[in-house]
Amino acid sequence: MDKLSKYQIVVMIIMFELGSTPLFQLGVKAKQDSWLAMTLAACAGLLLLWIYLRIQNRFPEMGLADLLRVHFGKLLGTFTGVLFGIYFTYEASRNARDFSELTVMTILQQTPQWVIIFTAALISLYGVYKGPAVFFRVVEMLFPVVIVSYGIIVFLLFVARLPNFHKLLPMLENGIGPVAHAAFPDILSFPFGQMIVFLMFWHRLAPGKNLGRTAAMGYMIVAILLILMNALSMAVLGPDISALSSLPLLEVVQLIQIANILERLDVFVTVLLYIGLYVKMTLFYMAAVMMMKNLFKGSHVAWSTIVVLIICGLSFLEPNNTVRLWIGLTVMVKLYTLFQIAVPILVLVVGAARGLGTKGAPPNAEPVGEK
Amino acid sequence: MALLSGRNTNTSTPPIHDSSHGSKKSSAATPLSRKTGDNAASISSRLGDSLDVVSRTIGGNSPEAAAVVIVYIGSLIDQQMIHDNVIQPVMIALHANKEQSSGLKMLELLSRNIIATGSMMAIKTEEEALEALLNGFCVIFVDGIEEALITVTAGGEQRSVNVPITQTVIRGPQHGFTEDIYTNLGLIRRIIRSPDLRLTGKRIGRRTQTNVFVAYIDGIAQQSVVDEVQRRLDAIDIDGIIESSYIEEFIQDRTFTPFPTVMNNERPDVVAASLLEGQVAIIVDGTPFVLIAPVTFFKFFQSAEDYYQRFDIASFLRLLRHITFFASMLLPALYIAVTTYHQEMLPTTLLISLAAQREGIPFPALLEAFLMEITFEVLREAGVRMPRAIGPAISIVGALVLGQAAVQAGLVSPAMVIVVAFTAISNFVTPHINIAIAARLIRFSLMLCAGLLGFFGIMTGIIVLLTHLAGLQSFGVPYMTPIAPFIKSSWKDILIRAPRWAMKSRPEVLGGGKRKANASMPDWQRQKKPE
């Protein structure tokens, strides 16, 4: 098993959290204070990150599947593991659907959605089939492209004098209430709570490296980036247009027009979001495959195929985008909370009560190592 | 293996009774006879009485019982040398030899005092004699003993050291490898005069028995890589090795990839520099192309010239090479995607101009691009294979008929001709032809992706390509190092070429370590402050 480097973990956290996040103007319920809502959620997310890291640090060599079994016992642990597998699969399928919705909305208006979904599923399958070591390297290669592109977009926005930071005023117009309401649980669960997926990968960090600092560094960088992007796009569009637009970042970039040649940069954005969605979808998908493989053995290829078929199937579940967004924002957010907050806290408490992870306390359940 | 010791390398007299030699084949070996005539006849018949097998009998009373018989293959040896250093001294000595000594005494006399060649060895079987003969040695049978002497007399016409044809530089050494392996080894040794330079040889090819040398610098190259190279070479079992590409195909890490995981090079300076960075070179007899492993993707974009020119222009050119490599893969695909799916991306004036050109073109952009690309590939192949005398015909046909006339006839748009031409030129910028070939192949699949799904298709193609690249390895080194996995210290020589004083350490993946102690700008290069 190839070990991951610190840099790879940091890059993956940044790329994963960036993912499709700039696609949506998160926290738009808080109007011009959306970036404050982001900040609030990011701080709460930091707390979640601490919980996840505490769990991981008890058994640095174990993935989530083994961690659950050690904490909950074989039967209950396996059951929770399967639930997590389903959760990861569902997240991946939502990303696949995001993929098709985004593509059909922007660059390929007449292409049937299933074509996009199957293509996206195929490239993800290829990445998963190659294994985490290769996929992390792919993301490492994409990282400079993404960062430079975001840098160029931000630079051009300022050159075109688009951001008007007066649009962010007045701050806290209606008090902290709407901000907190926008932050919890929506923004916390997407994207910050999704850090839970890294419990499947952190144990691959090369031994002797400080996981806590590494993960926290990646998280801080990406949180600041997300808050800045959020504030910037709000400063360009203002709260009203942001609330109406389905793809605010795209609208922002379409406003850039410099010297009659630098225009129509939205394809840039589409490429960025393509990469983001690809990374996110593949990581969730890979987490699901790893989980099932750890729990039930079976070959990597077999599980990859099964899971990708489920992802394709799930992504056709909702009849249209409106229903999908509604389900995502009302029903699923509550379920996400279960996986991202409730279960980890439970694991933390159970572990503390049973004194797991402290020196000299051997795990009760047999850890099922990978490979 | 002792036969590989080569010309002029072993000047001391080797032990006459070499017990280790030939032990491998001793089971089926035919021992030599005491009679020189029998030996010579037997050897000659085993070579099918070929006309170029020469057996020179010297001394004795009859041809069947000559005192000494010298056998060699006339087409493999240096006539002058065998005449001056072997035949003549032996004849003079036998003539002066009053006591008519024979057997072991004679053998030792010849070996110690008479024959004036660099290395010499005693053999006991016909098989050893045959092997020696076929490698350009001459075999000296002595009457009255079941042993014979062999000595190196290899020679014959060789191409002289010339300017490398495939990898030219403006500044830098202008000599390239030749087909002769000893010349090539010498070219390397003359650059690296270090006792740590290791050259280990082996024979590969059941019929051709090709000499293959593995070169590395002890203490710089990673031993694990050297061992792995040896292991893979040992696993080769084939009738013949004609060119180093045979070896390359056997030892490369993956077959089903367009990307080369072993580099070949014609330039001794590049091979020497690679050895100094910890790579391993594989030198094959009969070809000027030396293999270098392990390599990473970015090694293929380094030209020898980068290190001989100023670092600023070298960096610029290297960046240009990377960009043009991607242009040569992507440009036609982007053109197809833009004209077919994303017309709105173009500035209006450009869009109108393109649309006007495409009006009346009977094919969709994808087909148009494919036609032109295939046409160019045909032209290119014709340009390489055709006899030199009819060269101008190709350029006339290419430039006039396929370029101008095709546009005037309304079959292709001028913009497409520009795209194809630029793509083609970009492809030639890459210093190593075998990675340029990869771009050529990938170009077609990306064009198809673009034709089917526009930008989405291109992105999909690129992601698949990156995943493929990330999964490649060359002798255990990830192919995309130092970008993925990221190694900061190696970046000084990847996209740019840092000033020489800044490149303090050797590439980490290949072994690492310091290549020099000073790593700061020398004080005389610092700008003086005005006083």
TrEMBL record, chain A:
The chain crosses the membrane at residues 7-28, 34-55, 67-90, 110-129, 141-162, 182-202, 214-237, 267-288, 300-317, 323-350. Keywords: Germination, Membrane, Transmembrane, Transmembrane helix, Transport. Pfam families: Spore_permease. The keyword Signal does not apply. It is found in: Membrane. It is a multi-pass membrane protein. InterPro entries: Spore_GerAB. NCBIfam families: 2A0309 (TIGR00912). Belongs to the amino acid-polyamine-organocation (APC) superfamily. Spore germination protein (SGP) (TC 2.A.3.9) family. This is Spore germination protein. It comes from Paenibacillus oenotherae.
